Amino acid sequence: MTQTAKNTDSDQPQHSFGADVSRLLNIVANALYTNHDVFLRELISNASDACDRLRYAAIQQPDLVEDNNNFRIHIYKNTDKRTLTIVDNGIGMDKAELMDNLGTIAKSGTAKLMEQMKDAKDPLKLIGQFGVGFYASYMVASHVTVASKKADSNEAWVWSSDGASGYDIREASNDDLDMLDGARGTVIILDIKDEGSEFLIDEKIRQTVEEYSDHIDFKIFNNTPEETDKGEGKPLNKASAIWTRNKSDITKEQYEEFYRHITHGMDEPLLTSHWKAEGVIEFSSLLFIPTLRPWDLYDPSRQNMVKLYVRRVFISDKLDGLMYPWLRFVRGVIDSQDLPLNISRETLQYNPIIAKIRTAVTKRVLSDLDKLSRDDYPGFITFWGQFGAAIKEGLYDADAHREDIFKICRFYSTHEDGEKFTSLDQYIERMQDDQNEIYYISGENVASLKNSPQLEGFRSRGLEVLFFTDTIDDFWLQNAQQYKGKTFKSVTHGNVKIDHSEETDEKPTSDQTSLIEKLRSVLEDDVSDIRISKRLTDSPVCLVAPEDGVDMNMERVLKIHQKYAGGSKPVLEINATHPLIIKVGDIDAGADFDDAALMLLDQARVIQGLPVKDPGSFTKRLTKFMEKGL
């Protein structure tokens, strides 16, 4: 193949890489320096995807493969020129796709990756979350040339770059076309650096393919397409879809390499689920739960990452409806025996078989996670820390699976002082005999919630309270209000009856009633009510949401994320036996009492994590009372 000359200062590339792209290429080439094999795995994976996509396209357009429907991949070296060549006869790329796929990198994620890379202790793992793909070539190559001809095009193009300053692109010559495997596909030529010399040895190529790419569903040859056509050489891999094999014939290492093949990552799967559904519908499923959370897990545009096959023919890797959005971190393959091969991607998501597959797969994933929680607690806690918030989204919009989701949900609670997770079943086992409510408090983090004054009365009576610290918690509670007949109840919402043995509420004394009336006259614009608290034992005051209002943390979340303009006035609860409250009650109505009342309200706001209404006035009142006290 005729190659573009390497760039000099006077011969700049036609197209420049962005600054982030150049830096990322440098990191890929150096951070993965000790694992050269990765580049070949990635290139084979890309070649396999190209064959998959053409095999699907040929269902609707058989003429795309009429010259050759025998999909395959070739890898061969030229020791004289120090080049390694990878050839596939897949779908190929046109000029725009070459520029888009090879001229840019991680379109939506480059900037975010670079930002995280600054403080990364292990760049290898971080890169693994984004995938290294084609750019891993520069670990072993000083220059890369790609020639490609799309299956439905009469034009062919050549892309070339040293992976540093930019890239060139030109129309392919006859010599370039001679390198293709037939009338379509892609050829990648790597100019091998000294540190990559081992890949100019056939035995090293064979070992790498056997170790990393044995599961690839297309034959991989260690010779040229012409030599293969003459009957020379045998495939280096088994060339059978791994999900169609018996579990007993697959090693842990083979599962892990397939996982890396579909994720382009460097981590190991936390959970592998390989099974076959038989009965009303039939499909094979090989799914993985990652160890590392994808960088875009909470990106609104993120789609599910499970590939759909129909009788081993790749159909789609971004099918809405195949997996619930809250399982968007699951990776793997589902291969249906019932769907028609010629179904269009546009109508596929509305096919009732897809909904049945989704239901069956969801039940299996949740069952496997429940089993993991019992058999491997550390592994499950690792999973929950990474993906628990996403799983809880299902409590909001997947009522058919709500009970199974609740089984695997974990929360911190006052039982272990927020140090260990607990399940809802464990919470219910510890409930008091006359308790019918699951108490919780929601906020930003466990550390701040542990010190909430609203918990004091619950702690003193031995009532456990769950800590809800994920934003989604405030939303799923609107739809999922009970578990096993027990109602979720916020300890910061409404007039909670803590002592279940009390038949009637104790009425305030005349002095307490007088104090409440005086406080109301000062704070009527800021609070909806003032009452004696059953929650408080040590603190003088706290704020809670009125019974008909929005819970306080929910209101805070809505204001931040949805520009919520509403806002019900909170209820101020006072601890009638606290020395400070008693002394405030002794102050006669007037300026001093007004200041004391406002100080109590500001104190309650500060404890709740809310800003004081008027910092300047608050500071003056605080200074005044400190002067008197000192």
Number of domains: 4
* Portion in beta strands: 15-25%
Low-confidence stretches: 2-10, 106-111, 123-131
Looking at the overall shape, the CATH architecture of the largest domain is: 2-Layer Sandwich
The count of DSSP E runs of length 2 or more, i.e. the number of strands, is: 22
Classified in CATH, the superfamily of the largest domain is: Histidine kinase-like ATPase, C-terminal domain
Q: Class of the largest domain, according to the CATH hierarchy? A: Alpha Beta
Trace the largest sheet across and list its strands: 1-6-5-4-7-3-2-8
Mean pLDDT across the residues is: 87
Structure description:
- The protein has 630 residues and is an alpha+beta fold.
- It has 4 domains: 15-236, Heat Shock Protein 90 (2-Layer Sandwich), CATH 3.30.565.10; 247-373, Ribosomal Protein S5, domain 2 (2-Layer Sandwich); 394-490, Rossmann fold (3-Layer(aba) Sandwich), CATH 3.40.50; 510-629, Four Helix Bundle (Hemerythrin (Met), subunit A), CATH 1.20.120.
- It has 23 helices and 22 strands.
- The strands form 4 sheets. Strands 1-6-5-4-7-3-2-8 form an 8-stranded mixed β-sheet, with helices on one face. A 6-stranded mixed β-sheet has the order 15-14-17-16-19-18.
- The protein is elongated.
